[in-house]
Amino acid sequence: MSKQKVKVPDSLRDVLLEFSIAYLLEQPGDVIDFAVDFFTKLQTNRAQTGIGIGVTKPTTPDESIISQDEEPVVNRFAGRRKSVFAEQYDPEEDEEEENNKVIFPKTDEQRSRLCDSVKNILLFRALDPEQMNEILDAMFEKKVKPEDVIIRQGDDGDNFYVIESGIYNAYVGDDNKHVHTYENRGSFGELALLYNMPRAATIKAVSEGQLWALDRQTFRRILLKSAFRKRKMYEALINSVPMLKTLQNYERLNLADALIPKVFGAGERIIKQGDAADGMYFIEEGTVSIKILQDAGEVEISKLEKGQYFGELALVTHRPRAASAYAQDNVKVAFVDVDAFERLLGPCMDIMKRNIDDYESQLVKIFGSKSNIADIR
Ligand code: 1OR
Ligand code: 1OR
């Protein structure tokens, strides 16, 4: 029997690979339904942007995975046009490096400083304790002096950095535009490692400082899957909340890292009027009933649904909760704690304040007088 060689087109291989990765990451259950949805999105995306969800041309190992995108790398995280949530990764890389655990021994004092520094790192939120320990083992100290360049835009990514102390500026573009300042907290250097692309910004120390670094292999082996899954999971929610459109792509990704999923059954109270505020909520599924305590008991003042949010008022005004919130049916929400709220939702503050002004006019409509308004603010 004569053997005929069939050439597998690169585009077929890439599309199928991307489909398989998306399926494995999301584990949606029904493969056919998922395939229909996936390929429909791919087609729509191509019609709108001229490129597929991720892959339309083969990449070499040295080539940036997202280099098929015509935009400069930096703009991908600054603009708002395209999805930056659904990127590629190679799950096989996980297995290859499973046995190469990196351990930098630490004194108790070092470990305690390190634990303090990583407490609020959003990317680490999705990790279980075992993964967290592996990361802590692999991190190593790096002292820096003023003017030290820790990351240079365009370089390959080597490490991810967590700040223990010091002030650092981020600069972008040929004109080194100052885009961000880190002060004694936070982390940087995740993008090049997550998306396998050149460094998107330059990071320079302004003061003396102390950093904790994590090598690229350990970062990718442990964090890639959880970070991608979480970012993917919250893509739809973040895109469905009009207020969040004010955020830049880079800020939206950070928000996805910060969101904490919570569920409530019918009738369950989510927020109690008068309590101190610990965060705010975005509704993913279900209906939330907002009630205010009146002399005759609780009165429903509003019903909120998917894409809407609540619990922001007390955070903006620094007052106790102005109303109670109840799950009317099964409700799924994404919670942002105060810390992440202050760090990430600054750009939405004007919109939130405008909506709060609306509460006041609604209040007048509902109760026919302004007598209760002082209580809201
Ligand atoms: P990296 O691995 O690309 C540079 O190395 C790091 O700078 C990057 O990861 C981020 O951790 C950090 N856009 C892109 N990267 C930023 C930005 C940023 N700010 C800090 N980094 N923008 C500023 C958003 C407030 C958008 C600029 C157009
Ligand atoms: P919070 O942190 O005070 C209760 O916790 C939340 O209910 C509040 O944030 C808002 O997100 C949400 N007045 C006060 N809070 C309201 C109102 C409201 N609607 C929603 N919330 N209204 C004025 C009437 C008394 C709205 C009427 C439509």
From TrEMBL:
Residues binding 3',5'-cyclic AMP 1, per UniProt: 190, 199
Cyclic nucleotide-binding domain sequence ranges: 123-240, 243-362
PROSITE patterns with a match to the protein in the record: CNMP_BINDING_1 (PS00888), CNMP_BINDING_2 (PS00889), CNMP_BINDING_3 (PS50042)
GO molecular function terms attached to this record: cAMP binding; cAMP-dependent protein kinase inhibitor activity; protein kinase A catalytic subunit binding
Binding annotation for 3',5'-cyclic AMP 2: 312, 321
Taxonomy, superkingdom: Eukaryota
Name of a matching Pfam family: cNMP_binding
Keywords associated with the record: cAMP, cAMP-binding, Nucleotide-binding, Phosphoprotein, Repeat
SUPFAM superfamilies assigned to the protein according to its UniProt record, in alphabetical order: cAMP-binding domain-like (SSF51206), Dimerization-anchoring domain of cAMP-dependent PK regulatory subunit (SSF47391)
One GO CC term on file: cytosol
Classification via Gene3D superfamilies: cAMP-dependent protein kinase regulatory subunit, dimerization-anchoring domain, Jelly Rolls
PANTHER family in alphabetical order: CAMP-DEPENDENT PROTEIN KINASE REGULATORY CHAIN, CAMP-DEPENDENT PROTEIN KINASE TYPE I REGULATORY SUBUNIT-RELATED
Family (UniProt): Belongs to the cAMP-dependent kinase regulatory chain family.
Protein name: cAMP-dependent protein kinase type II regulatory subunit
